[in-house]
Amino acid sequence: MPPIQINLWAVIAATAFAMVVGTVWYSELIFGKQWAKLVGKKAADMQKGAGQMYMLTAALWLLVSYVLAHFVQYTYADVWYEGAIAGFWLWTGFVFAVGLIHALFEGKSKFLFAINAGYTLAALVGMGIILVVLPN
């Protein structure tokens, strides 16, 4: 296998994409109100410590993006839809399956699971595309 070459700019762009998708996904225009209600949060609760949470979230998405970049390389994805497929299969096997196991045993709302899993699906598919189309 040839050595893995990761485009760090693509990793950063994919991370930014995930953050933008999350900002829109959890906005009041999309799922923000429903999500807040399901987790028992109010708008004022969301402001407390938000800066730290966003920084940590960005760092974690950076880690996810870096790992996904490796996966894209390992699968030899070289066109946009192969990156999308890579993101989809990672989501299916690790996010959806494992997340649903936890949701079932924790008795959490199916709608809350769907909101969170849907966001991660959109993020991973888009990130997979970005990591393939931005050249190494």
**Rg of Cα set:** 16 Å
Helix fraction by DSSP (H/I, runs of at least 4): over 70%
Strand content bin: under 5%
The end-to-end span amounts to: 17 Å
Oligomeric state as shown: single chain
Mean pLDDT: 93
| Secondary-structure class | mainly alpha
Helix-strand pattern: HHHHHH
Shape, principal axes of CA atoms: globular
Unreliable spans are none
Number of discrete helical segments: 6
The strand count comes to 0
Biggest β-sheet strands, sense, barrel? none
- Please indicate the count of domains: 1
Describe what this molecule looks like in 3D.
The chain has helices at residues 8-25, 32-39, 43-47, 50-74, 80-106, 110-133. It is mainly α and 136 residues long. The protein has one domain (8-133). The longest helix has 27 residues, at 80-106. It is globular.
Throw out a few tags for this protein.
mainly alpha, 136 residues
List the helices and strands and how they pair.
Elements: H1 8-25, H2 32-39, H3 43-47, H4 50-74, H5 80-106, H6 110-133
Helix pairs in contact: 1-4, 1-6, 4-6, 5-6
